Amino acid sequence: MRKARFAIATLMTVVLASAAIADAGAAPTSIGGGAYTEEQAAAGKALFDRSCSTCHNADYYKTVFQTWRGQPLLYLFEQVMSAMPADNPGSFSDVEYESIMAYVLQITGFPAGDAPLSYSNGTMEEIAIEPAS
Ligand code: HEC
Which of 126, 92, 98 is nearest to 39 (CA)? Predict the structure, then answer.
């Protein structure tokens, strides 16, 4: 139990430190810092409309971000890759899942940035989930 508490405290420190770096204008360290590009979100819209919107809307994702707050976006992304769409899990390419996640960030009110959301370059682990405002 004590170990678990320590791990959580350590994680929180990392998350808070990451948020401080985002303010300095470095690579995004939270989904509020511009974690995807407009082009990605535009590409994700058609996929989302066809394969995601039948089961949940933007408000649903706001609840999800609330639940997952403080965790790396990578974890949620991998969850979506392996479990969604629920009627055909894992049916998209990595690039398509990136676009879909970009569109989800856009419709929940998070800003676009300069660099694309990328599963392969390792940066998604450094991007913390935060609740939509
Ligand atoms: C056939 C219905 C259906 C479709 C289509 C679908 N989902 Fe889901 N989704 C679900 C269900 C059911 C859950 C689990 C709900 C729960 O436990 O709250 C879920 C959960 C989720 C979660 C929360 C995961 C978590 O562990 O917190 C996310 C994010 C999500 N879906 C994204 C997507 C995306 C993105 C797509 C399109 C690629 C998609 N879903 C398509 C039914 C669907």
Answer: 98
